[in-house]
Design brief:
This protein has 441 residues and is an alpha/beta fold. The protein is built from 14 helices and 18 strands.
Length: 441
């Protein structure tokens, strides 16, 4: 699709909620700047919403407002479609039909691309029309552009990030205030940082969607979202934050994907992160993505991972890229995820075969020889203890809290050790924790 300079670029937006409203506002506020920069106006010609009665916090004067999502894909006055609905099935139909009808697409929908990326990117390549998705990972952080453009000539070895602001907010408040998980979750819901049904966020599903997209770009192959193991936050106890801090760590909601030779591993879990690392100091709703690549070394991108303006800013950046390409008649060269050589794809390894260092915390009867008993179980499995913290029993109590950090061992081995330790005589109650320690190597 070629657009002459001066001829307006007409945009159709599906969804005028948090992000869609911000996109309309950014486009309205910067309209004269865009007109000057691009020699052409960008006009929102149509929007689609579910409820026509809802008051919107943006000026939609002169814009056609409808409820038929699919109408955008065939509308004659729409050159580019921005999908900001969030639902997977409707969005899938819309994005496919837009590409089939010759319209480039911009979306913030990580679930859509994590679950249907193979099909959509193949169609996008076939039709020579881009699907851009800067807003789908890290909100306002321009990490997709970094992965797409700035690491050519590098082999990415590891991506590690804090890519769910809700989880980071919850863990930060628990760490700073000693507040209970249930209480901070309620606050997060009241403040609009967590959904009424927070499952997608707190169970790590949202982060796994985003991680699969980052990994696709990093490792140039399709990543099966289902093979990214994800763990929730609910098992992390206040005591763990206190002990981890004493041992030199923060606890962060980590998403990690690594490639070694012909294997890829990917997981989302709360993890101990050494206080010496930048990621340990990324707090609240802020997101961060660290990329380790063979030539450039380590880079870190930090910023707002959500919110209308931040996410809208990423959407608008994609839109401007598409507009330039339309003017240059170069849409086919904008961007298609390179999926590398199909005969040379690394396999995702099962989580039980991945290796981590582990933080173990138990409460045991305060009597001599308890640590020795645990140590001998670990020793029997060739697991060594790298650090240990023992807290004396509180006054009037007869149980002591022991926490240790192991060397790096296979997940299945640590699960065996856990089972053996929990059946030791002298183990006291159900109050124990097993948390993985983040290590990018
Ligand atoms: N919010 C963030 O900070 C953020 C950050 C990064 C990525 N994202 C992604 O951005 C996308 C949009 O998120 P959001 O927070 O803006 O969502 P939202 O506030 O819930 O807005 C969704 C919009 O889509 C409309 N919609 C939903 N289903 C529809 C249907 N069947 N037909 C027509 N319109 C429909 C809604 O209409 P009504 O208003 O009439 O209900 C609403 O305007 C999602 O994919 C999300 O994952 C959001």
């Amino acid at each position: 699709m070629h657009k002459q300079k001066n001829s307006p670029i007409r945009v159709g937006i599906a969804g005028v909620g948090t992000v869609g409203t911000a996109v309309v506002n950014i486009l309205n506020d910067a309209s004269s700047a865009f007109r000057q920069q691009l020699d052409t106006p960008i006009e929102v010609s149509q929007v689609v919403v579910r409820n026509l009665e809802t008051q919107r916090d943006c000026d939609l004067n002169g814009v056609t407002i409808g409820t038929d999502v699919m109408a955008l894909s065939s509308a004659e006055d729409v050159d580019v479609v921005i999908e900001l609905i969030g639902d997977v099935n409707i969005s899938l139909s819309l994005v496919k039909q837009c590409l089939l009808n010759g319209k480039p697409v911009i979306t913030a929908n990580k679930a859509l691309l994590a679950l249907h990326g193979d099909e959509l990117f193949a169609l996008s390549k076939e039709k020579k029309l881009p699907i851009l998705f800067e807003a789908a990972v890290g909100g306002g952080i321009p990490i997709i552009k970094v992965m797409r453009e700035s690491l050519q000539g590098n082999r990415v070895d590891c991506i590690a990030g804090i890519i769910n602001g809700t989880c980071n907010y919850l863990l930060t408040r628990m760490a700073n205030e000693g507040a209970k998980y249930e209480d901070v979750l309620l606050d997060a819901q009241n403040l609009g940082y967590a959904e009424a049904d927070p499952t997608f966020d707190v169970e790590g599903i949202d982060a796994a969607h985003k991680l699969s997209l980052l990994a696709r770009l990093a490792f140039h192959q399709s990543i099966e979202f289902e093979k990214i193991q994800h763990f929730g936050l609910a098992d992390v106890q206040i005591e763990d934050f206190i002990i981890a801090k004493k041992m030199g760590y923060a606890i962060k909601p980590m998403s990690v994907c690594k490639r070694t030779d012909d294997k890829i591993e990917g997981y989302v879990f709360p993890a101990l992160v050494s206080n010496s690392l930048l990621l340990a100091n990324v707090n609240g709703v802020t997101n961060a993505v660290q990329v380790c690549a063979n030539r450039v070394g380590e880079i870190n991108c930090v910023g707002p991972g959500a919110g209308g303006d931040a996410t809208g800013s990423a959407v608008v950046a994609d839109l401007v890229e598409v507009v330039y390409a339309m003017q240059e008649d170069s849409l086919p060269s904008v961007y298609f995820p390179d999926l590398g050589d199909s005969h040379n794809q690394a396999q995702m390894i099962a989580f039980e075969d991945t290796e981590h260092a582990y933080y173990f915390r138990f409460r045991v009867e305060d009597k001599p020889g308890m640590i020795k008993q645990f140590a001998s179980v670990l020793e029997g499995l060739n697991i060594s203890i790298e650090a240990i913290n023992q807290d004396e029993p509180k006054e009037g109590e007869k149980v002591a809290s022991i926490a240790l950090i192991t060397n790096k061992v296979q997940e299945k081995k640590i699960q065996k050790a856990l089972k053996d330790i929990l059946s030791l005589p002298g183990y006291v109650d159900e109050d124990w924790s097993l948390i993985r320690v983040f290590n990018r190597d």
